[in-house]
Design brief:
Blueprint: E1 6-10, H1 14-26, E2 30-35, H2 38-48, E3 52-55, H3 63-73, E4 78-83, H4 88-97, E5 101-104, H5 109-120, E6 125-126, H6 128-142, H7 156-166, H8 171-178, H9 182-196, H10 201-219
Parallel strand pairs: 1-2, 1-3, 3-4, 4-5, 5-6
Helix pairs in contact: 2-3, 6-10, 7-9, 7-10, 8-9
Length: about 220
């Protein structure tokens, strides 16, 4: 199934771009195009229609500026931003513009492969290390109360699954990890989303990250 996913990689650093393309090709993805500018991203999306467009923010013409232009012509194009930027404004702008994923360049090749597979299947993904910061900033700006703990509504099994979701695992790999059927994981996720009042995996992971934020700030590695 993974081998059927067609990917284009857009980044203006040739060594990084070639490394990403090679690592994804080695695990069975089909790399159909590479580019280095906003114009390349728009052209490749229109002409070659990749399943996934991996795109940097900091490149000639701007990656963020490219998202809306790409989606105007190819509305179903799935875009994953692969960047070093941890700025909340960049994350919010990318997601609001229509990107389906926001991943930091420090991600490992195996994790990136899982993220690509998840986004290709219709999921949205934001690196867990950014989720707490994003949720905290949005909550603070909206003045929403933060003292209630929605996680208290979850069963032990649901919390276990949510932890794995936040770690970036797909439904299939969560099922393998917990020795359950994939349909069972989907059923649990439906209940988790309902209990947390969220719409998708990213929002659920952000809720978890927000509650764990004090731990993250204390244990953050240099």
């Amino acid at each position: 199934m993974m081998s059927g996913i067609r990917i284009a990689v857009i980044d203006d650093h040739p060594l990084f771009r070639e490394g990403v393309a090679r690592s994804l090709a080695e695990v069975g993805f089909e790399i159909i195009a590479e580019g280095s500018t906003r114009e390349d991203a728009i052209r490749i999306s229109q002409e070659q229609r990749p399943d996934i467009l991996l795109m940097d923010i900091s490149m000639p013409g701007g990656g963020l500026q490219a998202i809306l232009q790409i989606l105007e012509c190819v509305p179903d194009q799935k875009i994953i931003m692969l960047t070093v930027s941890e700025a909340v404004d960049d994350i919010v702008r990318a997601l609001k513009s229509g990107a389906k994923g926001y991943v930091l360049k420090g991600v490992g090749s195996r994790a990136l492969a899982e993220i690509v597979r998840a986004v290709a299947s219709g999921e949205t993904y934001v690196s867990p290390s950014l989720s707490a910061r994003l949720f905290s900033d949005l909550t603070a700006s909206s003045g929403a109360p933060t003292d209630a703990d929605p996680l208290a509504k979850l069963t032990a099994r649901e919390r276990e699954i949510l932890d794995l979701v936040a770690a970036g695992l797909s439904n299939k790999h969560i099922a393998i990890e917990l020795d359950l059927h994939e349909k069972t994981i989907k059923h649990h996720l439906t209940r988790i989303f309902a209990k947390l009042g969220v719409k998708n995996r990213t929002e659920a992971a952000m809720t978890l990250a927000r509650r764990q934020q004090p731990e993250i700030s204390v244990n953050k590695r240099a």
